[in-house]
C-alpha cells in the first residue's frame, strides 16, 4: 500500500504540482516527532529525578556540589523551620559553630538548618519575613587581608551592591577573626551593619571571636546571651530539652564494591588515579616530591627546603602565591584510637544526614573505612571544643570521668577554667582525652561525626615561576614540641613532609596532594621600583621568589630597582637559611643591601626590628622619597606589629607629619599595595 500511495503521490505531483511536496511533508513529520520525543523525554527525566530513591553512592562534603535545586527559604517553609544559620568558613570552624547553633534551636522550639551563603539570594532573604518568628544567624569568618571567605564572596558583593528591602528580617551575627591581624573581623562587622542599613532587625548584638585568644570561649559566651535575647524578642522559653541528637546516622557499607569506596580523595572518587585539570581545593594535584633537603647547618631544630614537581600539570603560579598541602594523620595516632575504642578500623561505613533537606549529605567523603576517615578526613590532633566534651559524657562509665567532662562542657567560671587548663594549656587532643579518661568509650561512628575536618596547610611559595616554571618551592620548619603532660605533639603536615624523601633509583617517588592559592602579595608592576623586604626566619620564603624574579629581569638586561632585605635568625652558623644564595645575589648586584640580625650570637638579643630602627634614613628614602614598596612576612603577633610601629614613627619623624597625617599616609600605602604583609599567628 505504501508503494501504491507513493506512486499515486508521485503521479499527483507531476500532474498538479502542489505547493507542499512529499519532501516537505516528510521533514515536517520528522521535526514534530523529534520535538515530541524531546519534550516528553525531558519531562520523564525530570519526574524520575524527583522520585529517585536514595542509594549509597560516593559523595563528598561539598555543600556547593550537593545543593538541592530548592532554595533555603523553600526548605524552611516546607519543613516547618524558622531558623537558618549561614556560615562563611575557610577552615571549617564557622561551619561547625553554625551547626551547633542550629542544633540548639530545638531547645527553643526553633527548628533550624545550616546553609552556605552561596545558597542565599535577594529574594530568599526578603521572604524570611513570611515565616513566623523566623531568624537568620550569620557565622562569618574574615580571611586574609580583610576578605570574605570563598563561599561568602557572592553574598558579600550582593550586600555591597544591592539595595533590597530587608524589613522584617530578624538576624544576629557572630564573627570569627584574629586580633593579631589588622582587619579584625572586618567582614562580620560590615555584614552586621549593612543588614541593619537595609532594614533588618538585629535581635542580638554582634559577637567577635578572637582565634588568637580563646575563640571557643568567645563563641559560647555570645551564644548563651544570644538565646536570652531570642527568648526576649519572640516571647518564648527554653524547653529544657537536651540537644544531643545525632545529626548523621550510621550506614553499614560492607557490601559496597571496593571501587566505590573513598580512600583519601577530597571530592571525586579515584581522582588521584585519574587526574583532571584544573586543580583546586576540591581537586588537588598529586605532586611528586622532587627535592627535600635540610637547610639548618646544626642544632636540634629542622627547616626543610622542599620542591614539588608540577611538570605536565598545567598549574601556573605567580611569585608571592601560596601552595596548599593536604596532609594526613600519622598511622600511630590512628591505630591508637582503634586500640582505645577496640574498633575495627577497616570496616566500611557511611554517615548519612538525618535531615533529608540538608545540602550536606555526609560530613566527609563516604563511603570509606574508619581508617581512611581518621587518616585523611578528620582532625585528631587539635584541641577538641566544649561541645565534644558534652557529647562524650554519655560514653563515660566512671562517674568521675562524667563529672570532669560535664564541668568542662559547662559555661560556668569553674568549667571554663577547667577546660582552659586541662585541654588548652595542657594541649590535649582527642587521643590524649581517651587515654586519660579510660572509661570514655564513644562509638567510633559518633566520634567521626563530632571531630572537625582535617584542613590543608598553606605555605608561602619560595620560588619564582620565571626561574622554576615546573616546580614549586616551600620553606618549612619541622613542628615538634613537648607538652606539660610530657607528650610530644607533632605538626601534621611538616612531619609528613619530613618523611617524603625522594630516591635516586627507579622506585616510585613520594607524592602529596597540593593546589595553588592566589595571593595579593606581589612585586611592583615595574621592575625599577625599589623595595624593602622584612622576613626573619621562614618569613624569607616569598622574598626568595622576589629576588629570583628580579635577578631574572636583570639577566635579561632590564633595569631593576633597589632591593633591601632584612633577615634574622638565632645563630649565623646554625639557622642562616639560603646563606650562599643571598650572598651571591649581593655579589651580582641584584640584592642591594642585606641587613642581618642573629639574635643569639651576642649577649644582647638583636632582631630585625632593631636594624630597621637604626636605618630610618634608608627606610624613608625608599618608601617616602622614592615611593618604593615595603613587604613584611612572618609572625603577626609581635614582629609585624613592631614593624608597623617603626614605620609609623619613621614616617612621622622623617616626613615631618602629624599623627593623623601619618596614619593616612600609611593607610594610603596599604591601599596602593605599597605596604603588604604576609603574616601568620
Provide key terms for this protein.
single chain; 681 residues; alpha/beta; Rossmann fold; Elongation Factor Tu (Ef-tu), domain 3; NADPH-cytochrome p450 Reductase, Chain A, domain 3; 4 domains; 7-stranded mixed β-sheet; 6-stranded antiparallel β-sheet; 23 strands; globular; disordered N terminus; oxidoreductase; Flavoprotein-like_sf; flavoprotein; NADP binding; NADPH-hemoprotein reductase activity
Describe the protein's architecture and organization.
The protein is built from 24 helices and 23 strands. With 681 residues, the protein is of the alpha/beta class. The strands form 5 sheets. Strands 1, 2, 3, 4, 5, 6 and 7 form a 7-stranded mixed β-sheet that branches. It has a 6-stranded antiparallel β-sheet with strand order 14-11-18-9-10-15, with helices on one face. The protein has a 5-stranded parallel β-sheet with strand order 21-20-19-22-23, with helices on both faces. It is globular, with a radius of gyration of 30 Å. The termini are far apart.
Q: What topology does this entry show?
A:
Blueprint: H1 2-16, H2 22-50, H3 63-66, H4 72-79, E1 83-88, H5 93-104, E2 112-115, H6 122-126, E3 135-143, E4 147-148, H7 153-161, E5 170-177, H8 186-197, E6 201-202, E7 207-210, H9 215-234, E8 248-252, E9 285-294, E10 303-309, E11 322-325, H10 331-340, E12 348-353, E13 368-369, H11 370-377, H12 386-392, H13 399-409, H14 413-425, H15 430-436, H16 444-450, E14 457-460, E15 471-477, E16 480-482, E17 488-490, H17 492-499, E18 511-517, E19 531-534, H18 541-555, E20 563-569, H19 572-575, H20 579-587, E21 593-598, H21 608-614, H22 616-625, E22 629-635, H23 639-654, H24 659-671, E23 675-680
Parallel strand pairs: 1-2, 1-3, 3-5, 5-6, 5-7, 19-20, 19-22, 20-21, 22-23
Antiparallel strand pairs: 3-4, 8-12, 9-10, 9-18, 10-15, 11-14, 11-18, 12-13, 16-17
